[in-house]
């Protein structure tokens, strides 16, 4: 039996440092209207969608830093962002969106929520587990920083799969879903924890620099080659993890050139459980990519090559959950 | 500092059901001589290199089945295979080779050994953990079986990384290595356990059918498309896992058409820690592919994006080692 639904990634182009949040939200709503015209049931927005990707900046003022965060327990009531959720509800479209979250105790998280249009509320929240980058800024004032480890705590909500009550497929059963954020996509542990819960669709946004190689001791690659390499890695992990975990994936890029100098890759895509790209963004600007997917196609992988119950051997995996870093074997 | 060594995959073409084991071993020795001419230090042979891939056959006679296995505690003393190890020692080339192992207690394993030429002995043994296929043969007499779960027990030696005492790089330190076998390459857990031990080179052989889709409920793909799909998946997981685990990988195919009807993919390859194919087989016959690799290139991944100590969050991975199959979330 087929279980078809229509899904989209809403890629978002340049968002400059001084961008107005209400104006950015209007861009998101425009993409949502396009989705409504195309009968889309679920739209996935990027990571930290509402502002420029501020972890590239070393911001010492807490007051300034806080302008990039959403405060308050319920993002759907955040004045600048509420119009997006209201419109999602009006259009009957579920959305997954990333933002910087400041909790009442002052902690920062790189967060995504899943808003169910039929429930009229956020039904799942995820906080990014695999924070890349560093705590301290680079000494070189020309280097592009990546300060997620400074501004955010590692996510404390785990990887909790869920079903959206209103996201009906045309067959029996709603899809089981999960959220990742950016760098998480490079960590198969994250995909495995979700798919051990039967996840059929994983969603993630990302902000991935096109020319980050200079941060790490230089490169002989041209800027164009660096961008191709970053795109290659992004596609490679999405395709391989979709295949090895027998699930669809929907990825959405914050991309383009922020402030005339910070270039982010595009490549938003929808990938099948066999690892094939079904739809992919053609631009590095605001762009909606849409696909009708048949969630039943996950069964092939889940019941055969990747039938966990028959093939996984947890007795051989022990160190994965007890050992964080490398412990080399003794020299022979 | 660079740490260069020259490595090879010795791909092996068709091996028919009635092939003579001494003749097959002579083919392996011929590839070893080519490796010696090219100053290769390590040759990786396929999975179950010494015979046809017998798990495709339903063999009821234990006596017949045992002809496909190596018996005795030390494969280097197995009369048919000893000439290969003797030649490896004479040439000073380390080899990794897969074979079917029958233990004294009658158990069967799908095994690989690492033979160190300088030590003059096997210094590491691996038994395949992720056995694909089924215990029972198909009812359809025209179907190609995959009976590894019938003939082999899951490997009981874990994933133990090791250093080869004589495999000198031209810089400081010998590479840390590990062995996988065929289907293991599709399971990131296996790569992770090895690379949590610092593994820099993973080696594996495989027997992967070109046209297996008919086993699983039919396909609309042509035979050529099926072979391309099988190759696509094989490359995808090798490239992505090499990247996500920041290690080189060397894969070696048993390939070609066995007995005029069982078609296996080629695609033996050497892949960099950035996920790029450095060398790849051009044929589906006996073929040596060679590359000089710089093991120091693993540092980029191991110290940056995939610096496990800084980025892994084991508190979020718990189910990976305690739960074998899928447990779906409760319905909302």
TrEMBL record, chains A, B:
Signal peptide: none annotated. Keywords: Hydrolase. One of its GO terms (molecular function) is hydrolase activity, acting on carbon-nitrogen (but not peptide) bonds, in linear amides. Residues 5-295 form the CN hydrolase domain. InterPro entries: Aliph_Amidase/BUP, C-N_Hydrolase, C-N_Hydrolase_sf. This is CN hydrolase domain-containing protein. It comes from Pseudocercospora fijiensis (strain CIRAD86) (Black leaf streak disease fungus).
């Amino acid at each position: 039996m087929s279980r078809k639904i229509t899904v989209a990634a809403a890629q978002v182009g340049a968002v400059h440092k001084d961008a107005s949040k209400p104006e950015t939200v209007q861009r998101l709503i425009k993409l949502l209207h396009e989705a409504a015209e195309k009968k889309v049931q679920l739209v996935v927005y990027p990571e930290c969608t509402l502002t420029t990707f501020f972890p590239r900046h070393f911001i010492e003022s807490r007051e300034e830093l806080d302008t990039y965060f959403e405060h308050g327990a319920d993002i759907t009531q955040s004045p600048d962002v509420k119009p997006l959720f209201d419109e999602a509800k009006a259009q009957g479209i579920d959305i997954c969106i990333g933002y910087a979250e400041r909790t009442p105790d002052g902690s920062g998280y790189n967060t995504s929520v899943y808003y169910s249009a039929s429930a009229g509320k956020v039904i799942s929240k995820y906080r990014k587990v695999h924070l890349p980058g560093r705590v301290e800024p680079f000494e070189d004032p020309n280097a592009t920083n990546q300060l997620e480890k400074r501004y955010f705590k590692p996510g404390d909500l785990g990887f909790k799969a869920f079903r959206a009550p209103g996201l009906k497929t045309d067959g029996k059963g709603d899809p089981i879903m999960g959220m990742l954020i950016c760098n998480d996509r490079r960590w198969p542990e994250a995909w495995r924890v979700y798919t051990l819960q039967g996840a059929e669709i994983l969603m993630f946004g990302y902000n991935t620099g096109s020319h980050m190689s200079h941060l790490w001791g230089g490169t002989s690659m041209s800027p164009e080659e660096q961008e191709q390499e970053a795109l290659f890695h992004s596609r490679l992990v999405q395709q391989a993890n979709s295949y090895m975990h027998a699930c669809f994936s929907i990825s959405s890029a914050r991309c383009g050139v922020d402030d005339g100098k910070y270039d982010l890759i595009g490549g938003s895509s929808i990938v099948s459980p066999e690892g094939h790209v079904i739809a992919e963004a053609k631009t590095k600007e605001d762009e909606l990519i849409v696909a009708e997917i048949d969630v039943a196609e996950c069964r092939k992988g889940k019941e055969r090559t990747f039938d966990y119950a028959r093939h996984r051997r947890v007795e051989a995996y022990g160190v994965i959950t007890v050992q964080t870093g490398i412990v080399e074997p003794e020299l022979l």
